[in-house]
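Task 17 of the worksheet. Students: predict the tertiary structure of the chain below and write it out as structure tokens. Keep your answer in the requested format; marks are given for formatting as well as content.
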Amino acid sequence: MDSPEMEELSFGDDRREPEPRTGLLRRPLVVAGVVIVLLAGLGIAGWRIHERSRWPLPPPAESAPQSGFFSVYMCLHPTPDLPTCHDGAATEEDKRGLEAALKALPEVRIFRFRTREQGWEDFQEWATPGEGSGVAGAYEPADMPEAYHGALGPGDWQGVKRRLESLPGVWDVLVVGDTAWRGRADIAIEFCPDRGGGAFERCERTTRASAQEKAAVLGRIEDLDGVEAVYFEDLAHALQDRRRIVWEGTEIDPLVVPESFWLKLDRPGRLSELREIFGRMPGVTAVVEVSAPAQWRFAVSPGAGR
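Model answer:
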């Protein structure tokens, strides 16, 4: 009996080359790559969550090197009680003598000259609400002396001050230390101290910011992008840093020293943004950046530096 005819099913040319094994593996490799990327992303996110769960951190333990700033204000008019200003306004010869002395002092890293006009312009810029508004109306352009501003390294600061104060044409010399936060943080969110009013005009109270107010601020910080670290500076550390700045032993009243959150950011230039966010939160008195003292910021004209 004849066998029934079988229907032939064709899937193409049977003579084609077999598919390479790499083609068979390509899809699993792509899937594995996507999984690895996702896991890496989850790992980074998990690390960020872990890091932020440790906030706020205590202040860095290592001490910063001694550094500071100075300002030398030149005589404006005759001052009988001050021998260096007895003859009136500082002369060009007086300024050349001061510059020579500054160049000879090993503690002086750099200095700059500021004209009276530049001083007034910079003072007006600084004397804005929230910073120098309380003293802005007490001065006028004629009150701005010529000045030299500069940076100091380690050394005999008392000797530097005595030497500069003795020079003809010098009316006053200010020397301040630098904060230990420079290079460690960028922005400070300062809380109300025990005694409000005055420089702390937003703090009409007689108690420090509460734990709840600080927690609310920390919660807002944790929602921000670009914050690499948050430190809490308690009163003890704040007093230590103030004494580093006011190095001559001036008594500091702890009732007017604020505690702060210090933020390390991934990029500069965010002061206005953070003031807008935190400046009016309960318990906050100011949002400031780590910057040189006001008198150093007034120095805008390059001079004969070292």
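Marker's comment: The two ends are 116 Å apart (CA to CA). Residues 1-15, 129-133, 294-306 have pLDDT under 50 and may be disordered.
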